[in-house]
Design goal:
It is built from 17 helices and two strands. It is an all-alpha fold and 429 residues long. It has a domain at 23-141 and 176-200 and 243-267 and 323-424. A two-stranded antiparallel sheet has the order 1-2. It holds the Pfam family Acyl_transf_3.
Length: 429
């Protein structure tokens, strides 16, 4: 278990720079699966109603669930930092690369995203179709925010990475919004850095920059419209917002921060344990303080909470990057790698299953069952849902995510026209 396993899924665009230590790669592997499970727990929590948590006594397990089931948003921010660190960092570090690299780079990125995304969309269509046919009376699939998501055109828009940007989502698979953001970060970041790359002619370098700027502006337009008060919902758009702040641009900043961590010359905090403590404290304070009446009175606290989580996690990665080898995280067992290996599959497949189970229990126990205060049946249902979600994601990953390297090698070897043309352009200045 070493950094090569991590780079099998997140290969660097080209050689250069220092290697990742075992402490750092082990920690990233652990962070990836923990974040994916946090998203699963947060979404499975729709079946657990503990609205009386502040007015009635509960056992320790209920309080633990209340605390731990609300980190799905922060988990996605962690994903963005890690992605920026692993993908954007090498691009930023080697921006003056003298050899063409875009062909291999885009082959890597497209294979990583689509080898899971396309089967995940097929899974979404299949389970949504069954759920809508078998449990129509539960109302789960008739929620207002699902108004247009089952139209076939939404699947095409999602394949084009427009979900929650210029289009609605595909079916019940809302979490795929973050993949659209990441894919466009992958595409535009090297374009924005193109003027520094001597491997291509001046014309292509500045054409790339111009294209990158235009793409970012176009993709950010729906969320900027929504933030300014335009009713984009009436136009069939569903831009992902967080208290009025568009997640495409904010996420890009988070992703870019991850890239900067990869090249920062020194840590902000020298101690890994202090950095870890700051990150955990940021999570805890955000969970306990940025909610309810306080948040309603001061909506800007949401942005402060997000910034504190992102900044502290980036600080932790930076401390790990500069730490001497052989630390605590270097001794983590292989279980973290095995769980990390199907974290993307878990993220991409769990939401349709959650809605299907929600509809199923509504059909069996009544459509208001999920609103009741939790009984043992509720807890057993949620535990079973999460277990099935994990097992299914693992099986799904064996025929998708685990084949990423094979697809990447095929695309690199085949040199499909788009990649071949990108790689063939050389400097003529």
């Amino acid at each position: 278990m070493d950094e090569n396993l991590l780079l099998a899924n997140y290969p660097e665009p080209f050689e250069g720079g220092g290697s990742l230590t075992k402490d750092l790669t082990n920690f990233i592997a652990m962070a990836r699966w923990v974040a994916a499970v946090a998203v699963l727990v947060g979404h499975a929590g729709v079946l657990i109603n503990i609205s009386d948590i502040m007015v009635a006594p509960h056992g320790p397990g209920v309080y633990a669930w209340w605390f731990l089931s609300a980190f799905s948003h922060q988990a996605v921010l962690v994903f963005f930092v890690i992605s920026g660190f692993l993908i954007g960092g090498p691009l930023l570090r080697d921006r003056a690369r003298a050899e063409p690299y875009l062909g291999s780079y885009f082959a890597d990125r497209f294979s990583r995203i689509y080898i899971v995304m396309i089967p995940a969309l097929l899974w979404t269509f299949a389970i949504d179709t069954v759920g809508r046919a078998v449990f129509p009376a539960t109302g789960v699939y008739d929620a207002p925010f699902f108004a247009s998501v089952f139209e076939p055109i939404q699947y095409l828009w999602t394949l084009l990475q427009q979900q929650h940007l210029w289009a609605a989502q595909a079916g019940t698979n809302g979490p795929l919004w973050s993949l659209a953001c990441e894919m466009w970060y992958y595409i535009t970041f090297p374009l924005l850095l193109a003027p520094f790359c001597s491997a291509y002619s001046r014309f292509w370098r500045f054409s790339g920059l111009g294209l990158g700027v235009v793409l970012v502006a176009v993709l950010a337009t729906p969320e900027l419209m929504a933030a300014s008060g335009v009713d984009v919902g009436a136009r069939g758009l569903m831009p992902m917002l967080n208290n009025g702040v568009g997640m495409f641009l904010f996420g890009y900043g988070v992703w870019a921060l991850g890239a900067l961590v990869r090249v920062a010359p020194r840590p902000v905090v020298g101690s890994i344990w202090i950095a870890l403590g700051l990150f955990l404290a940021a999570l805890a304070v955000t969970r306990l303080a940025v909610r309810g009446p306080i948040l309603a009175a001061h909506p800007w606290l949401s942005a402060v909470g997000d910034f504190s989580v992102v900044a502290s996690f980036a600080t932790l990665l930076l401390a790990l990057r500069h730490a001497p080898p052989g630390g605590f995280f270097s001794r983590l067992g292989p279980i973290h790698w095995r769980l990390s290996d199907f974290s993307y599959s878990l993220y991409a497949t769990h939401a349709p299953l959650v809605f299907f189970v929600w509809a199923a229990v509504g059909g069996l126990f009544g459509r208001e069952w999920f609103k009741q205060l939790p009984t043992p049946a509720h807890w057993i249902t949620v535990a079973g849902l999460m277990l099935v979600g994990l097992v299914f994601a693992y099986a799904f990953s064996r025929v998708t995510e685990s084949r990423t390297k094979e697809l990447r090698d095929f695309l690199r070897t085949a040199r499909v026209p788009l990649f071949r043309r990108a790689a063939a352009v050389r400097a003529v200045d």
